[in-house]
Amino acid sequence: MKLIDLFKRNSAPMQTRRFDGAAGGRRWSSAPSFGRTGPETLAASAPIRSRARYFVANNPWAANGVSALVSGLVGFGIKPASQHPDAGNRASIGAAFATWAKRADAEGRTDLFGLQANAARAMIVDGEAFLHIETRANGLRLRLLPAEMVDEADTRDLPNGGYVVAGIEFNAAGQRVAYHVLKARPTAVSASTYGTIRVPAEDMLHLVHPLGAGQVRGVSWLAPILLRLSELDQLEDALAVGVKTAAMFAGFLVDQNGTGEPFDASDESGILTRGLEPGVLQRLPSGFDIRFSTPQQAQQTAEFVSHQIRAIAAGLGVPAHLVSGDLREANYGSLRAGMVAFRQKLEQIQFGTVIPQMCAPIWERAVSALILRGDLAATDFEAAAPLWLAAEHYPPPMPWIDPAKDVAAIRDALEGGLMSRRQAVAERGYDVETLDSEIAADREREARLGINFNPRAATPEPQKEAGSE
Q1: Residue 60 above 50 pLDDT?
Q2: What mean pLDDT is predicted for residues 110-118?
Q3: Which of 85, 232, 320, 385 could pair covalently with 313 via S-S, beta carbons 3.0-4.6 A apart?
Q4: Do the beta carbons of residue 89 and residue 381 sit within 8 Å?
Q5: How does pLDDT run across 208-217, given as a tens digit for each residue?
Q6: What is the rounded average pLDDT of the residues 274-278?
Q7: Which of 75-89, 297-311, 351-365, 438-452 has the lowest mean pLDDT?
């Protein structure tokens, strides 16, 4: 290298690599940003939860959207079915679990599947749901706790290398080991004097659909739409006032030069109560003129409100008609496309969050308790526990848009070998063995009673006339 080369400038690059989203400049000067997921969600969860509860209780669009999500996620219940290899044991497990499920609620107000719906609703509105598994003399019970009962103010280090974050205790390896639960709601009188109870992690189910890695507490699913809901509420209030004002028809008598003669009408607090009558030509006293109010009505607001409702539906992740209830512009194609995408989204949450975090742990804990209590005979449970605890969980089926076409498509897939009957029945929310048993029982009963509901089998062949070929 020559000495002069040290003083040479590098030539400007012909091209530069960059992400516009990471660039600076005037266009990004006022743009907000999002920090680390853990601290951001911890700081925002409580105020967002409070606002979400308000709008779900008071805003019809929010209430409708949340109801659609709860109905789609759990519906009448995500039903488990034992996968034990022995048919007799499968039946025994199913019967024992069904009996327990009827009394699973610690408060005695609903059953297991009602608790599923309540927990799903809490996960959506509050961002998380806590189910406490209580061991009682008469078996296991489940109690749904409000999110604020897990002490959000409890964050500290522990001497054993563990730590507590927002009421959830972790060991040194970062695994959840306990939950610190308040003895009373924070809003209760003298709640701060009651303290907390340390509940082992195996006795608490935390249902949450996280936004990202490092998130400890949940954030309401309504977070993306809260500001829009608030603005829409204010807009509707303003429009309602505007419509009321526009509907007011008032006349003003103007004394043009201050010499108007008395007017023949009653005067109450400066308001002449004499009204107008159809077909009347009213003669005004000399010096008076009359002017009528012409309030302006808001224009082009319907499309704007519809746009806002569609944005709210998109923020919740549900089809717009499930939020607005408006099917005027819907057709078969649009409904099917929207519901298929909605079903895919629900299945991702069902099989990625709801079943592994709530349904599967409840099944395993309940079946184990039934066996240990002697309510379910299983002499080889200790040696073959995985077989006794194996289960499939079936979410409720999504409603068909066009049953004839949907059934025909399933039939074609079965005949073409593209799916099994077990898969087809599971997509309808049922267990194939239970379905086959019910069909066999129906056929046996029909044969015993001499009835047949199969139209093709019941229709006799047409008789040929004598002499016909």
Answers
A1: yes
A2: 96
A3: 320
A4: no
A5: 999 888 899 9
A6: 63
A7: 297-311
Q: Work out the average pLDDT over 381-393.
A: 94
Pair of tokens at residue 349: 């949450």
* Full-model pTM: 0.81
* 261 vs 111: CA distance, rounded Å: 80
What are the structure tokens assigned to 114, written together? Answer: 């009602």
| Backbone phi, psi, residue 367, to 5° | -65, -40
Provide CB contacts within 8 A for 121, sequence distance 6+. 66, 70
- The pLDDT, as a whole number, for residue 32 is 80
Say whether pLDDT at 21 is over 80: no
pLDDT digits (tens, 9 = 90+) for 129-166: 999 999 998 899 999 999 999 999 899 999 989 999 99
* Ranges of each domain in the chain: 225-259+285-324, 400-451
Buried b (16+ CB within 10 A) or exposed e, 263-282: eeeeeeeeeeeeeeeeeeee
**Mean per-residue pLDDT for 404-412?**
87
Written as six digits, the tokens of 252 are 């003003």
User: Which CA distances in Å does 197 have to 127, 151, 214, 254, 417?
Assistant: 22, 10, 25, 76, 56
**Encoding tokens for residue 50?**
């409070």
List of residues 6+ apart from 43 with CB closer than 8 A: none
Residue type, 259: T
Token couple for 244: 């009321």
Separation between Cα atoms, residue 390 and residue 372, nearest integer Å? 17
Give the phi and the psi of residue 291 in degrees, each rounded to 5: -130, 145
Dihedral angle, C-alpha 43, 48, 53, 54, nearest 10 °: 130
Query: Contacts by 329-335 with C-beta closer than 8 Å and gap 24+?
Result: 332/401, 332/402, 335/401
Q: Distance between CA atoms of 34 and 47, rounded to whole angstroms?
A: 17
